[in-house]
Amino acid sequence: MRDHRNRRLAAFTRRQGHAALDLPPPTPEPGHLTSEELGAEGDTVMLMPRPATLQLLIDRYDQLRALESAGAMTSEERRQLEDSAYTLCVSTGTRNIADALRVASCHCGTSTRQMTTAA
Question: How crowded is residue 8: how many other Cβ atoms within 10 Å of its Cβ?
Fold first, then answer.
């Protein structure tokens, strides 16, 4: 129910602009680009999750890979591993887990040597 209301509010806000809700325009967080800085219309722009979110995804993937390596993985955990790999790929715009981990670690500021997973 809440998700449905949030989607309706977001659609309304897009149609009416921030003035309809009497809100000031959003200010970008430090390190984030404004729409003017993104470039001309038609440029392809990919939204990236916050580094903390990516780090949580990496950590979860690493935990599940450790279980898999130890041979102590249930079918539910195997599904979670596949879901984690898929989510990392989608979040980073990549098609395989090795690239996803590389992009995510770069975005998080984590060196690939610090990562415990070798995909």
Answer: 10
Give the total number of structural domains in the chain: 1
Q: How many CB atoms lie within 10 A of CB 111?
A: 9
Quote the pTM value.
0.57
66: closest CA among 107, 17, 115? 115
Q: Is residue 39 part of a domain?
A: no
CA distance from start to end of the chain: 39
pLDDT tens for 89-107 read: 999 999 999 999 999 999 8
Domain extent at residue 82: 51-108
Q: Is residue 35 part of a domain?
A: no
